[in-house]
Amino acid sequence: MIKVDVEEERKEILKRYRKLLRVAKPLLKSGDAKLIKKAFNVANEAHKEMRRKSGEPYIYHPLEVALICVEEIGLGTTSIISALLHDVVEDTDLELDDIEREFGVKVAQIIDGLTKIAGVFDYGTSQQAENFRKMLITLSDDVRVILIKLADRLNNMRTLESMPRHKQLKIASETKFLYAPLAHRLGLYSIKSELEDLHLKFMDKEAYEFIIKKVKDSRLSRNKFIKTFIAPIEKELQEQGFTFVIKGRPKSVYSIYNKMKSQNIPFEEVFDLFAIRIIIDTPYENEKADCWQVYSTVTDFYRPNPDRLRDWISTPRANGYESLHTTVMSQTGQWVEVQIRTQRMDDIAERGYAAHWKYKEKENAPEKAAGSLDEWITQVRTLLENNDGSAIEFMDDFRGNLFQDEVFVFTPKGDLKVLPFGATALDFAFEIHSEVGAKCIGAKVNQKLVSIGHKLKNGDQVEILTSNKQKPTEDWLKSVVTSRARAKIKDALKEEKKGYMMDGKEIVQRKLKQMKIDFSSEIVEQLRAFFETKTTSEFYYKVGRGIIDPTAIKSFRDFKQKKKSRKSPLLHVTDEKSFTKEIKNLKGPDHDQLLIGEDMDVVDYILAKCCNPIPGDDVFGFVTVNEGIKIHRTACPNALELLSNHGNRVIKARWTSQQQIAFLAGLKIVGTDRVGLISDLTKVISNELKVNMRSITVDSDSGIFEGSIKLYVHSTNHLEKLIDNLSRVQGVLKVSRFD
């Protein structure tokens, strides 16, 4: 029986391997297929005893990653080999030297960048952040490291179903926090959209499935609408002799979800559920003129919204994206987004960075897009060289570098500068030169005097004013968004800061000695958390500067003693591993999660104030440094950062169907004002079984009523029933929960 199974698997592995070769064939030079076969054999042998969490042979994963590299990103042989071998150093006895000997220096370098850092970490540092920093160090030598990592992450997200819940939360959040913005920054739009959709699928399955169903249900009417909409455009473009395709595609699930959330509207009110894309086949030198001609044709039939024209052909986005976007009014009174681009632009929009090189190798191909990406990699390199802080600090700075929207501004001489959305006059000053930035006292924007913190808008012309007496201060960090400006300001402050940090460290050591507490990285990390500073360096600096009064360290000792006297059985829990070990010791080998409502005697935990979880909410436990375990909702505003930076501290937690306890929840009510509305609302609440109201605030303006109520409920079901009853009150338009 097992024999047949093994044989079936062997056939499936070969089938997947042959598919990879078939898809890669157009990209291969002579001798490449031989190298790929060798890499496949090494990987297959190395992983032969291993299985994925789903029970499938492990080799499926490297094969799928290699396939994504070729099919969805357009990478070549070196990347295929690296993708096939990306896990062998980490998971088997093979060393990097063996890989270098067999496959060359390039492949070994890429695999080194993809291999996680092994070893024990200092208390309070984040292994996730350290691994990410290591990968980016290799990025500055070879961008393929990141592209393969994105392929690896995409395959992990596609197969995340088989992972335990707390791992799903950690991996999905990390994906949304870092990898989706990274895919965007490298111009890989389809991968970015899929990563965001999959993140939603695991963080809020209900919302994800609801949108999928709605999009599916509206498919027939949507297709009919698209057909009618594009018919006159198609006819006209054919008569003009264009070679083209027109596609209508629905927006990604995540972007629909985002619209519903940010604008607080139901699915039916999301107007731009889809976009029409017109792709023309035209030589490079005619691209611009032809795209504008198509635009002219579209606007002959449909009236455009003048505020919604985006010309990314004259000035491509920083990640190389080129396209012409307009929003036009259809015959049915619906706004429709139309994107106009050439085959080359579409290729680059779908495949990002890798596609640039394909076009770069051809004659007279555009340098501008690839050039801006090279510039960005140089910025990342600068960031890495200047960063001697913690990996989490670095990650924050780096995320600031993954800006999605841009502003185009000009120097007094008319040179164009592209900055992230939200950039200020001070960012612009540092963009010109670090000396100009350091001496900036203000600016003239369109001939008007403004402060250094003035936010720039598209088309602004900016002249920087400087003074030799000026020098950067700590407050400047609040006025900039670019990582270049942040790095330069931090550099200028570093020397002064170093002195304060050294003083602070000495004060802390002295105080701890007086209180007979050992000075260790664990204690310092607890102090950092107690005084709510982001990093230990920041903690030392604040003590050195006197922002944190050294005598206040005494209150930390009192807090520690109080905590000790509570005698939590889980005193030694610092992360998920130690929690699982302790809970199994206390409750038996079958227990690996926290039962909220039942384990109070065994485990010290509290419900997080930032999101007020109630029974029925999807939650996770988080091991804090000082306050035991905190229970957060997966929809908590802080969840993304906690799960992305400290995934190793996330533990499984679920509600028990135990006795009913009252939990605080908030409801926001919007409606049309009328006499007696409040009385009707409070009647519904007090008639509701055992509901106590804690507070109610009401605001009425020009006939519109807005109220927020805080009340005690037992569970999400209880809350939903209450929301339903309140929605039925005459005049109430909307009832929603808030944190």
Q: What attributes does this structure have?
A:
739 residues, alpha+beta, Hypothetical protein af1432, Beta Polymerase, domain 2, 6 domains, four-stranded mixed β-sheet, 29 helices, 21 strands
Topology:
Elements (H helix, E strand, L loop, with lengths): L1 H23 L7 H15 L13 H12 L5 H8 L3 H4 L4 H8 L1 H10 L12 H13 L4 H15 L6 H21 L3 H15 L1 H13 L1 H21 L4 E7 L2 H11 L10 E7 L6 H15 L1 E2 L5 E2 L12 E6 L5 E8 H9 L1 H8 L7 H19 L4 H10 L5 E5 L5 E5 L4 H8 L1 H5 L1 E6 L2 E3 L11 E5 L16 H32 L6 H10 L5 H10 L7 H13 L10 H12 L6 E3 L8 E3 L11 E5 L5 E5 L5 H7 L4 E2 L1 E3 L7 E10 L4 H11 L4 E10 L2 E10 L2 H12 L4 E7 L1
Parallel strand pairs: 2-6, 12-17, 13-15
Antiparallel strand pairs: 1-2, 3-5, 4-5, 5-6, 7-8, 9-10, 9-11, 14-15, 14-16, 18-20, 18-21, 19-20
Helix pairs in contact: 1-3, 2-4, 3-4, 3-9, 4-7, 6-7, 7-8, 7-9, 8-18, 8-19, 9-10, 9-11, 10-11, 10-27, 11-12, 12-14, 13-15, 16-17, 18-22, 22-24
